[in-house]
What does this fold into?
Amino acid sequence: MVTEKESSVAVAAPTLLTGTPVVPGVAFGPALIARNEVSLEAIARFGNGGFADDEAALAAYDDASAAVADTFQRRADKSSGAAAEVLTASAGLARDKGLRTAVRKQLRAGDDLLTAVAGAVEQFVGIFTHMGGLMAERATDLRDIELRITAHLVGEPEPGVPTPSVPSVLVAADLAPSDTAGLDPELVVGLVTERGGPTSHTAIIARQLGIPCVVGTAGALTIEGGIPLLVDGLAGTVELRPDEASARERVRLDQESRAALASWTGPGATADGTRIKILANVADGESAASSSAAPVEGVGLFRTELCFLNRQEEPTVEEQTDIYATVLSAFGDGRYVVVRTLDAGSDKPVAFATHEGEENPALGVRGLRLSFDNPGLLERQLDAIAAAAERTGTETWVMAPMVATVAEAADFADLVRARGLKAGVMVEVPSAALLAHRMLEVVDFLSIGTNDLTQYTMAADRMATDLAHLTDPWQPAVLQLIAITAEAGRRDGKPVGVCGEAAADPLLACALVGMGITSLSMAAAAVRPVGARLATVNMDVCEDVAEAALAAADPQAARAAVLELLG
Ligand code: PEP
Ligand code: MG
It folds into this structure.
């Protein structure tokens, strides 16, 4: 976490960097560098701090942690909603008495102050990680707090995102939740990170805020603070010191076309009238209520496990029914909702469902597999979904995550149909894509989860920020599997949708439709850009676009070929 400052290198600086585009749009502004390190020189200078005794060292810790807590609290006071909650929680963590006690213990054991702080934080990270779920996520915040306290102690400015005085392009290694909470899209007009992939925290927040964003940008950390940058979040390029007049013109044209997007009111269709359902991804009643105002025909993915990340005990069927009914009732006006049964495990641990201590949880007992030795868990959830459907009258489809075999799909479909609901499975494992035609013999629909399908096809952890070039749904192998699945649906006349992040990419959406995908489900913020783009393209062009993407050698070539065809 504490690394050496980049040394300046005497080679010609590049003028164009490329990365993975995640939020379309063009932004121009001075580079604002987010520091996430404390220099080794400052740490060496500080040494053991030269304190008279442990009490003096602890007093320095108190001052530094209070200053860090104040910074968080000031930012929380200026924010609202989830951002304010994240920042207030971080302020509380910086002031935590348990953390202070752990620091004091380490000092008494003979550690110098910086070692004591690092040791105390490490101890808490261990505890939080062991607790799993949301608590495990606080580990990132704790490390962020350690870095900030260290900076205060050694006399360096606090790392993180400085507040820009003019609209700027934020450049960072990657962004922590506390960095992104409260980002002001009026002042941070573009985002460029050296690390991170399309499903990274940075990408998800940028998408929510609608900030043009390029992640996994090799060389981003060599960008000098203050130099003008032109970010193209569709092409995945970052131009250094571009011609100012033409950069401003590109921003103007982009803003004009983004304003035109706002007027897209659905329903989803290609320019020549092929209907494509545009749907929303939701997590709970609140996101369902806000998404229901978007021009969507329903929900393509209700991630039920996200309702239970902080629950120790399985909620009763009645309690689950109430929760699901809030989501279903937001679409009770003739629209439909696809409910996904618990996808607990791996990156989404749920205390009452997941198996402890698996060697490799992404390849372990997660998703539908949890029902193998605990069938009641799935059956009670299906009872609750059926009861919520009955109570609200909303058309309800149900699908299972992490299905690998046709037999799993058939067993699941029997359970769902026994409750009078439409049954489907997610295609997230390559085996399901390869056998899509046989899956469709036993289910009513398929929904491709491109986030996991990419992870499992490329054998690259979707959360690994260093593998962004592999965790890219434009990878030709991933596109081939999507095409196989879509073609199976086309042959059988059954719906095959995409509900992973790939559906939120307006260019890729055209290729997916050209392959035969019948619905695209995404975060509400992506609905208009995708719907509006699709409305400008004829079906035969979508087919050409699909063919070009499938024929390309790599993601960059695929994007370039599609961009050229779409103009
Ligand atoms: C996916 O894997 O693409 C998906 C939609 O599921 P999740 O992101 O919730 O794993
Ligand atoms: Mg998934």
Remarks:
- The chain has three domains: 12-35+160-245, 40-154, 273-538.
- The pocket of phosphoenolpyruvate (ligand 1) is lined by residues 301, 303, 343, 428, 449-452, 499-500 (CB under 6 Å).
- Confidence is low (pLDDT under 50) at residues 1-10.
- The radius of gyration is 25 Å.
